[in-house]
Amino acid sequence: MSKQSASNGYAEAFDTISRFLAEPPKDMPNELLNAFNLLGGNRFLSPRLFFETVEQAPVAISITDPTARILYANSAFEKLTGYPRDEVIGKNESMLSSKSTPAEVYQDLWQSIVAGKVWGGTLVNIRQDGQEYLAKLSISPVLNEEGRIAYFLGMHDDVTEIHALERRLSFQKTLTETTLNAAPMVVVVIDSDGTVLLENHAYKTLISDLGDDPARLFVEALHSQIGLDLPRVCHSGDGFTNVEVRLDATGTLAPRWFACSGVRINNLDEAARSYFNNRKEDGCCLLLLANEITESRNRINEARLNMIRANMAEQQMVQTMREAINASLFKLQAPLNIIRAAMNMSANGGSCAGMGPVLQQALETGEEAVESLHGSLPGPRIEPAALVNVNELLHEVLRLSTDSFLSAGIVIDWQASPVLGSINARPNALRGLFKYIIDNAIHSLKESGRDYREIRLETREEQGELLISIMDNGRGIAQNERLKVFEPFYCGWSRPREHAGMGLTMAQEVAIGHRGSIEIDQHFIGGCRVFVRLPVHGMGGEVP
Ligand code: FAD
Predict the structure, then answer these.
(1) What is the atom index within ligand 1 of the atom nearest the CA of 94?
(2) What global pTM score does this model have?
(3) CB distance 64 to ligand 1 below 6 Å
(4) Checking DSSP bridges between strand 60-64 and strand 132-143, what pairing results, if any?
(5) pLDDT in tens, 238-291
(6) Mind listing the pLDDT tens digit for each residue in 363-397?
(7) How far is CA 168 from CA 162, 177, 269, in A?
(8) Residue 95 alpha carbon, nearest atom of ligand 1
(9) Best mutation site among 71, 97, 153 for ligand 1, i.e. most ligand atoms within 8 A of its Cβ?
(10) Coil, strand, or helix at residue 184?
(11) For the domain bounded by 380-544, which CATH number is listed?
């Protein structure tokens, strides 16, 4: 029977059934009536309409008896399998099997359908022309009045292309992941909430190295460096390249440097409602590539450190001279005052009467000496302000003191804020300030005679200020001396050696010059803790 004649044959049969059902004979048995209704002959859907729908459905439909012998197949079935209908009617569905579907799949199929359950799965089928295709098949058992399986209804579609696409997608995914994981640089995709959507091995390694969330640290560092605003990443233009950021891992002395590049990408929106409305601004994320440049940065820093070292040595020399001259000037005032008193007594005819000219000469000589000492006082250096990262600066100071730490057996506990914005400040002056405090801590630890010696540095941003806390577990400063130590020429060390008692006075001057402050923690016990506060916006305006 040709396709056309088969189709016409069914149509005629259903037209007859429709007419018959419209006026069924009075003595017609109920079983027969129900059987016709099973074929779709209910009062709402005419059997013809039912038949045409199945016949023209775009999915391959077949109806079989309980042994899978084909009783009916629609035209989509003919088209998909390549078999004319009359060649399949009466044959088992197994004629479509390419013999490469595993036996367990068929066992599962039959176990389900003979138990009256719907089965769905994928089989490898073969067309009449020998071409294999993947059939996504669903089989539903059709029960008779007694509840026994009367027919099976099979519907299948060719999903070969979808499968190929899925395979290609999975291959691309594996390829992308393998490439990303092999890349030495950190690759991470972060959405506008800061959630990590994709990361590579280098990123995972960084998580354990930093003991923190690297994505958050990168975003914070990029925010302070170039004003990156993650929630507004959709509006952030095309991205950025080679922005150098510094991450400070807590507890270790080695900061890490990364050259970061970022690309804005549209977010994958899987929601059904976005099907017709996939606007760009609906969601963007940031593809961040971070190349570690710590080694090259360290080399540059080493050269810089040598320059700083030379600079600080010179600064130290000038400072020592200033301290010595100031101390001499201070000490000269006492004999000069005595001479002035003796001159008064001589003028008033006291015991020094007659010594007036000698005293006058001594006073003049003394005053000349004071003047010449004043003249030899090295003038204060005017240092231009620059952008300073306090973490970096503290690092430099610590590295300058490395030898002292090693020889005194001092452990450094670095508790810096992982990301700290830069401030406008005079770098040399600030280095000097921190060097004084750290040198004091080293000295105090040496005098304490403790076995375990530690200096802890903490930095953080707090209410518009950078708070730098430098703590040592040395001999400490008595309560009543915690303010006195800032007075000029005050020296409380047991072994003063080169100390003139001007260090903290000058550190305080520097802090005040930066509109900041320096104080000794009044409540700290078991050593000494110094707080230095510097405004986040730096000195602001004119550089003092
Ligand atoms: P078979 O001997 O036919 O069957 C293999 C295993 O299936 C047997 O070992 C047995 O465990 C189980 N089994 C077979 N028949 C029965 C049964 N009557 N009762 C209980 N268990 C049974 N197969 C395809 O490859 N492609 C198709 O597109 C496809 N469409 C189908 C559509 C319908 C509606 C139905 C009911 C079945 C369909 N089948 C299809 C399954 C098909 O009938 C065969 O079972 C299958 O192709 C395996 O054929 P075979 O000759 O290798 O082994």
Answers:
(1) 47
(2) 0.57
(3) yes
(4) unpaired
(5) 788 999 998 876 665 578 899 999 998 887 777 787 777 755 556 788 999 999
(6) 898 889 888 888 887 776 678 888 899 998 998 89
(7) 10, 14, 21
(8) 47
(9) 97
(10) coil
(11) 3.30.565.10
